Amino acid sequence: MELPRLIAHRGLSHHAPENTLAAIRATHEAGLNWLELDVQCLGDGTPVLWHDAHVVRCSDGQGLLRDYSLAQAKRLDVGRWFDERFAGERMATLEEALALISELGLGLNLELKLSAGHDDNLLAETVVPQAVAMLPRERLLISSFSVATLSRVRELDGNCALGILYEDGPTRGWVTDAEQVEAFSIHSNWQSLDPARAEEIRDRGRRLICYTVNDPRRFHRWWSHGVDTVITDRPELFDGDDFAPSAEPADPA
Ligand code: G3P
Ligand code: MG
């Protein structure tokens, strides 16, 4: 699998409402060819693009995602909170998102979003067959903070590329985790990464992906420690072949 240096976080989420079809289109229009999206299930079992357990932050609704059916979720406005230009945007099902990603020829890092009260294995069992059926293997990377959930994914599909997410940097047991799920990549919060651990990941032949990098200037030294790819809200701040910072001031991390 050929990964680019930059993956758009939640779609191009600084320029369009996160985890929507509009954010997928914006990724393509910005010239990026890979994006990260979060998926979880509604109460009726439909997988949708969504980050939070609740719907308050990114819609005009109230309450928990798991209490919504698809019909109810489709009545929410998921664009206006971001900008009036996106008023009327509707929550995207995974199927709608995969169809658009396939049509645009994009690569997808799909994060199985764990949320209290949700059945993580059921999420994997619902999402994985759909994703592998709709995208070519070289354009699909499935990731999760849960090694147990990724183990279930591996049982469901022996070949798809898997990435293990670590909140506080890869732990000492990352090698065991990676062998258990035959991980393609290790995904680390860049602010918690240790240089020796980064180089160990590189030397052991796993890809190293850092999230969420919005300050190319501060990040720059990490490329030399073996980082392959960053997930970013602000791809436009990265400039040049070596991703030296561009002239535009970076957001505070
Ligand atoms: O997959 C990287 C990143 O998306 C993980 O954090 O909270 O933005 O889903 P979060
Ligand atoms: Mg995510």
UniProtKB/TrEMBL annotation:
An MF annotation (GO) of this entry: phosphoric diester hydrolase activity
GO BP field: lipid metabolic process
Annotated InterPro entries: GP_PDE_dom, PLC-like_Pdiesterase_TIM-brl
Pfam families: GDPD
Segments forming domain GP-PDE: 4-242
Protein name listed in UniProt: Glycerophosphoryl diester phosphodiesterase
